[in-house]
Specification:
The chain is mostly helical. Helix content is about 65%, strand content about 0%. The protein contains 8 helices and no strands. About 10% of the residues have low confidence.
Length: about 120
């Protein structure tokens, strides 16, 4: 079943700062369509719209964004928001027995930096 959303109406809600109404509309959509909508926005608009998403769906939406858009979000959110995003994604993967391979590489690198060992010459 395919649902067409009026992205122009959603964009209008964002532009007119009706963020509560936008959040309500986005919460009714599936995560792929939300990601498609976010991909159409400027980086600033995308960051705002992503931040108002309910926490229980933001991690799923994040996984459907292009890597450059993921990087922008990771670069603009606070440590607490990043931690929450990671926690939600971990709970999602744990409860559904899904492989970590699906976990976005952008978020993995931001959350789990690998220490660099210096080799003695």
């Amino acid at each position: 079943m395919e649902t067409n959303y009026n992205f122009e109406a959603l964009y209008h809600l964002l532009q007119t700062n009706q963020l509560s109404a936008l959040r309500d509309e986005l919460a009714e959509m599936n995560v792929v369509d939300i990601a498609d909508f976010l991909q159409e926005l400027s980086n600033e608009g995308m960051a705002i719209a992503f931040r108002i998403l309910p926490k229980d769906i933001s991690a799923d939406v994040f996984s459907y964004l292009d890597p450059d858009r993921q990087s922008h979000i990771v670069g603009t959110i606070t440590d607490n928001e990043l931690s929450s995003l990671l926690d939600m994604r971990t709970k999602y993967l744990t409860t559904r027995s899904i492989s970590w391979r699906r976990f976005p590489q952008t978020l993995s690198h931001a959350c789990l930096p690998i220490p660099i060992r210096k080799h003695a010459s």
